Amino acid sequence: MADEMELLKEWIKTSKNIVFFGGAGVSTESNIPDFRSTDGLYNQEYAYPPETILSHSFYKKKPEEFFRFYRNKMLFPNAQPNAAHKALARLEQQGKLKAVITQNIDGLHQKAGSREVLELHGSVLRNYCEHCGRFYSLEDLMEKKELVPKCSCGGIIKPDVVLYEESLNQKTLEQSVRYISQADMLIVGGTSLTVYPAAGLIDYYRGNKLVLINMAATVRDGIADLIIKRKIGEALSEAVE
Ligand SMILES: [Zn+2]
């Protein structure tokens, strides 16, 4: 492991166009659980699996049940950036890291100071009335007393989060492809790379410094140039000066 960390440090030192691609594991160290890994827990409390509740058709059919789950399990207004978020923000300030591409929806990269953050699955911090398009912050949404939040115009306020059955934002995808294809180093962390189409983005990388940082093996370990099996926060804070 010492050798692998030395190599990671060396690559970061010599790279000028680093891109980070991250998943739920980046946020678990801020105590935001990955809802996919804890299905069993929710089954006792909800009649449907999270993937069903967080789908577009379910949102339309049973908004009360959707928002009960969403408010209880998806919102963490007090979560704080962890060592991984902070190390990535530092790397951007040093001019080395060009973008963070994330599957997370919690806004913690921006809270840590990162500026170029591409949110593939949207953000809980943004909410829009489905009828008039008015913007609501997370605080606005949480202040609404009714379970299904309503705009002053009567429309339902929908979180700007990509639900199952919904397509990713095309512009965000295109920007991600551009960043990854131009990167001289790609660091992938906190994801098992099983959620498509997001996971397929790393195929656009054309360099020879693809680093996977993940505690468990991923389905794409075979294509990595360097694999580090450590907690993402530990590994990044140690590697970034
Ligand atoms: Zn409205």
Structure explained in plain terms:
Helices cover 37% and strands 17% of the residues. The protein is an alpha/beta fold and 241 residues long. It has a domain of 148 residues: Rossmann fold (3-Layer(aba) Sandwich). Strand 4 and strand 5 form a beta hairpin. The protein is elongated. Bound molecules: zinc ion (ZN). The site of zinc ion has 7 residues, from loops. Keywords: Acyltransferase, Cytoplasm, Metal-binding, NAD, Transferase, Zinc. InterPro entries: DHS-like_NAD/FAD-binding_dom, NAD-dep_sirtuin_deacylases, Sirtuin, Sirtuin_cat_small_dom_sf, Sirtuin_class_U, Ssirtuin_cat_dom. It comes from Anthropogastromicrobium aceti.
Short description, anyone?
It is found in: Cytoplasm. This protein is an alpha/beta fold and 241 residues long. It has a domain at 1-32 and 80-121 and 168-241: TPP-binding domain (Rossmann fold).
- Given as residue ranges, the uncertain stretches (5+ residues, pLDDT < 50) are none
Q: What's the architecture of the domain at 1-32 and 80-121 and 168-241 in CATH terms?
A: 3-Layer(aba) Sandwich
Beta-strand residue fraction: 15-25%
Mean pLDDT figure: 93
Name of the CATH superfamily of the domain at 1-32 and 80-121 and 168-241 = TPP-binding domain
In the CATH scheme, the class of the domain at 1-32 and 80-121 and 168-241 would be: Alpha Beta
Q: Radius of gyration over alpha carbons?
A: 18 Å
**Could you name the CATH topology of the domain at 1-32 and 80-121 and 168-241?**
Rossmann fold
Shape summary: elongated
Largest sheet: 6 strands, parallel
Q: Bound small molecules, which ones? A: zinc ion
Order of helices and strands: HEHHHHHHEHEEEHEHEEEH
How much helix is in the residues?
A: 25-40%
* Class per helix and strand makeup: alpha/beta
* DSSP summary: helix tally: 11
The N- to C-terminal Cα distance equals 18 Å
Number of strands: 9
- How is the largest sheet built, in terms of strand order? 3-2-1-7-8-9
InterPro entries: DHS-like_NAD/FAD-binding_dom, NAD-dep_sirtuin_deacylases, Sirtuin, Sirtuin_cat_small_dom_sf, Sirtuin_class_U, Ssirtuin_cat_dom
Active site: 121 (proton acceptor)
Catalytic activity: N(6)-acetyl-L-lysyl-[protein] + NAD(+) + H2O = 2''-O-acetyl-ADP-D-ribose + nicotinamide + L-lysyl-[protein]
Protein name: NAD-dependent protein deacetylase
